[in-house]
Each structure stands twice: as C-alpha cells, then as structure tokens.
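Quick sanity check, Globin domain-containing protein:
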Amino acid sequence: VEDEVEAAEADAFAKEELSEVQDKTFEEIRLPADTVAEVQATWNIYLSTASSRDAAGEAIYAAIFDSAPSIQNLFKTPRAVMAMRFMGGLNNIVVAMHSPGALKIIVETLGFQHLDLEVTVMRVVIFRDAIVDLLEMELGPRFTSMARSGWQSILNYVGGAYIYVRREYAGRLKIIASSWATANKKAKDVEEIEGEGDAGEGGEVAEGNEVDEGNDNNNSNNNKVGDVRAGAKSGAMASGEKSSRVNSMIVPTTFNEMFMFNGAVMGFGGSLWMHEILESFDNMVTNVASSYRLQEECDTLSLCIAKYKGTVNLTEFRAVMLASLRSLVPKDWSSAHEVAWTWLWENVEQMLKSIMGKPQVQEKALERFAMSLTEDSQKYLRSEVYKRFFANAPTGQDYFKQSTTRLFFIAGQVFEMTLEMYRDPRKMVEDISALGLRHVGYGIPTEFFAPYVSGAVDVVRSMTTDEDAEDGFRWSLSLVSRILVRTINEGSTIVMKAINTNNSKQLQKAVSCAPRGKRAMWVLNISVGTQSISPFYWAIESGSMESARAMIADLLTFRADRDNYYYGYDTLFDRHPDVVRRLCADAQALLPGLLDGLIWRSRLTQGGKKAVELLHQAPGSRCRWQLQRGLVLDGGGWGPEDHVPSGG
C-alpha cells in the first residue's frame, strides 16, 4: 500500500512539475500509467490515419514550420529528411514513455544532437503547441484532455532537457572534439603522405566492406600500434637501414603510438588489455554525445577485455591517456581539457565496471544450455519464439512471410549469434552491421526488435532454471538487437525508403534533397561503420527496376552551377566498375538507359546531324571518341549511317 501511495505521489509531482518547461534539472520522470497509455494510444491513432509514416512526418514538419516565422531559419535540412527525423525522434520518445531510464537516455541523446541550435523556452513552447494543435486537429474528439496534458508534459520534459544538456555539456563536448581532432591531425598527415605513395602505384582504398558482395576487407581507423611500427620497420629495412637506426628514428606522432610510448615509460607495457581499449577508443570519443552508442561500444569492449586473464585496472588507462593527450595537444591544453577528458573516461569506466566479470560466467552458462538442447527442444525453441513474438506484436506477421523452415533457420541463427557474440565480439559486430544494412532494404520497422527479443528471452526462461544462462542470453541478444537497430536507423535514408516503394517519382523526390556534389553518392553508397551497401545495386537485387532506372537517369544527367559541371559517370564507375557486367547478368532492361546516358549529344545541328560523344573509361585511362560523321537522328534510333570508330 505504501508503495502505491508513493508511486501516486511521484506521478502527481511529475505531472505538476512538467506543466511548464523545466530546464534547471534533468532527471528521470515517471508519468501516470493512464496518461502514458493515452499518449501512446493517440500517437498510434495519428499514425494509422496518415497515408504513410512519411506523410505523418511531413504534417508535423509543416505544422512546426508554419507556426512561427521566427523559427523558420532553423530549418536548414531538406524537408523530407527533417520529416523523417521528426518521426523517428517522436516515435522513440513515445514508445519509451513507460520506461523512465530508457526515456532519459533517448532524450539525452537527442539533446546532444541539438547542441548547435539555440534552444530556448519560448521555442520549446512553439514546438510543443504546434504538435499538440496538429494532433487535436487530426484526431478531434479522440484527443482527450488527458492526452493533451500528457503530450504537453512529455514535450516540456524533452525541451527542458535540450536546454539543460546544451548549457551543461556543450563546452565539454566541444573541447573533447577539438582536442581529439588536434591529437589525430598528425596521424592524418602521415596517412596522406603514405596514401600519395600508394596512389602512385595505382592503388585505391575502398571506403567500406561491400555488404552485397561479401567483401571482408575491414578498413579500421584504429590500427594497432604494433602494426604501424612493424610497417615502419619493414620499410626502413627494405631501404637498407639498420634496425637500431630505425628504432631510434621512430617518433610517436599518433595517439596510439604516443599512448604505447607513455604506457611503456610508466610501466604498463605488459597490460595487453589496453590494446583492446585503444581499438575502440576512437569510436567512444567520436560518439560521446550518443549515450546508446557509447553503451554499445562499452558492452562490446567488455567482451573483448573478458578474454584477458589477470587484473584489469582501468585507472591506469586514464593516467596514460591524459599524459598522451597532453603531449599531443601541448599548446591548447588547460584545466578545462583535464575536466572534460576525465568526465568522459569516468563515464566509460562506470559502464565497463558494471559489466566486468559477468561475460565469462554467462558465456559458460549459455554454452552449457546450448549443449543440453535436444533436437525436440531446439524445434520447440524455434517455433515458440514466433508464437510469442506474434502475440507481442501481431502486425509482425506481415513481415515474416517466409516458409516455416526459413523462419526456424532464422531463429536458430539468432541463437547462434548470441553465443558468437561472446566468442568473437569484433567479428560479430561487423557481421551484424552488414545484416542490419540488408534489413534497411527490407523496410522492417525497428519497433519489432523489442518484442522479438522479449519473446525469445521468455522462451529460454521457460526452458532453463540457470539464471546465468538466461541473463547471458538476454544480455547478448539485447546487444545484437541494439546494433541492428542502430545500423538500420543510420542506414535508413530517404533514398532507401523510396526504393522500397519502387516509384520513380518518389525516388526523384528523395534524390532532389541532396546537394549537387553529393547527389551521386546518395544513390550509390550508404556506410555504417566499416560496412557499406549500394542503394543502386540493392534496387536491382530487390526487383525495384523503376527505382533503378530512375537512379541511372539521375546519375547520367548533366547539371551545372556557376563553377562546376556535375555528371555521375566517374562516381558510378568508381563505385561499381562492374556495372555493365552486372546489368547484363541481372537487369538487361536497364542497359539501354545506361548506354544512352553515356552518350553526349550536341545541341547544334549541322546538315541534319548532331555531333555526339561516347564516354567510356578503360582501365587506367579515359577514352573519348567523337563520331566524325555524327549520328543520324531517325525517330530516336540508330540511323543507317551510324558507326562506331574502330577500337570502340
């Protein structure tokens, strides 16, 4: 009874506190359960009344944009992109309202993403009222007074959090970003010099692993320092220099090298676990503003550190880290830098310590559980997962239309992934990222991952009494799902969404949002970490030929501004040198459009003929043939006098 009274008092306090925008503090909030249910219900009704999620997002965008001319200068991102962001942000907030901890993390992450905007109480009120008025207009009597109060409370909480985060953390994050860029500047200079040497030999470096071609060449920016030194030493030996002379000439220029140098001087050269943190450190620093991503990196790192035996003293890493940064950023280093970097490491250390010691126990327990499964129990696990998932999320049945055999195979792979995450975490992160990018093409909403995880955990709980096995399965599967959700969210561009509709007008509308200089890459490359996928190739694989045809036409259209011409020919063949072979094998209907786009036609006519140029790139060079006689335009086809010069 006392707990119920305390909960009721907390609900009333939260509701009263959030009647206005509160920017003095930022804590977890717990709204009344009936209010949360009402807000979530009205949100679902609003989504169901809209023709699509994109349309719902654009309605919210228009409502906010038109609500006050004073804030229109804040909208610098294309309308379609902003509408998608509004939808994603609001949906995540509403879904997490029943979980105060998760809600706080989501709102904090969104606050970090808005550090460059001057968020004020007045602007928060404008945004809040615009959204509430839109919902009231769309839902009519279904938008009750409780729903209005709930929406105002949650939007006040979000707006106040944005102001608080910007005031309290913006300075620290800017210091971390600027000093990290300075510390890595020398490393980039070294890479550029080495890159020029490689370019002289005609070598190129891929921007990421091709998901659609299964390329396993990982391009990591965090190479271990041993590899760097080994490369430097072997190069010097090839020049005939003595090993001792080479070692004396090695001067730490990168953060990793400086860290290893200082670690050896300070007596920590035998702490091999520091290599694992170094490999993840760049990702942690660059994603410090994203609580979810930072937690994901720390979870993966904890699995790697668990492979090392002996004592792991995280404070040792902090001492070496600060010493290395002081050496690399000597001119700008101040007490503010000390505070900012210490704050970052304390957050990382807290996350790592909360997990350390558990992975070893959970891995063994999960392996014992897997070994104890009979053929019948495996079949039960695979079938029961979907029963419980469909019970938790009935609409999920619309996305799982494969055969029972295929569904059972997927469930089995999911279970295997939870074990492999413990055994080889770094490889699994790459594999899961590749899988997530493929799910972008499938167009599966990320809201289904949570009920799938819940259903799978419930099944395992019903099959074992070993709490360590259950905890290990739940923790590992949760990490897998978080990586998948992040990859899907980062890879879900408006171009990929347009491909799923297979509508050329939607594709053209999406691509029109891109800057001229980046227009080609919007349809040729999506990168998440070291993994990448080609929207163009994905359109071919998924059978979205109308979208693929529109992409080719857009890529091979000449555009210009005052300073430059823009033509996607080079970008297309650099990204996909095998594009002609691929179209011949999988999409012959697209070949005429491609070949037509490679022909430039003069606007001048002489003697009923137009001069044209056929653009073709041979390995290592570009050849242009100008047809001296021209092409006879006969109904848009090839005339009897047409010819291609010899060698073409």
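Posting the structure with no commentary besides this: Confidence is low (pLDDT under 50) at residues 196-249, 618-648.
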